[in-house]
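Same chain as my last thread, 185 residues:
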Amino acid sequence: MSAEKITELRLQIMDLRGQIAALQKVLPKETVSDYKFATPEGEVKLSALFGTHDSLFMVHNMGISCNYCMLWGDGFNGVEQHLQNRSAFVISSPDTPEVQQNYRAERGWQFPMVSAEDNSFAEDMGFKTDNGYMPGVSVFKREQDNIIRVASSMFGPGDDFCAVWHLLDLLPEGPDNWQPQREYT
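reply #2:
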């Protein structure tokens, strides 16, 4: 395969992303409840997580037990200030607020976190099944008194939400069964 073919395929991927974005805009919008989440400061409603923004990125994180979710969180920490300029950004997980805060401090994460431990949010959004929690993201818009989910996507190794996979793909051996770790020796 030539370098030209690789460039051609990368351009096709960019075009496909544009097609996905266009389709996403015409999908039916889903009105959701004003869920209540636990934080170290007490209970907070989904509507309050928007802050001054009309849109909200809510990352569905599996919690402290998932090294992949840690990897995504580390990556979001680097771009959070850019995202917060355009939209609110929050990570939810099933961990208690105390566990979240300890983990957040350990990782140096700057973004807010909320606990979905005691509500049906993850399940209702399709990120919890009988097999447990799954990682992903939902995007919400605030329209007057309504909260509308306008987009969602699952996360997984090689996805578009973590640059590490794409950089590892450039190595001659690719990811080569690489697994993220909380710490590397």
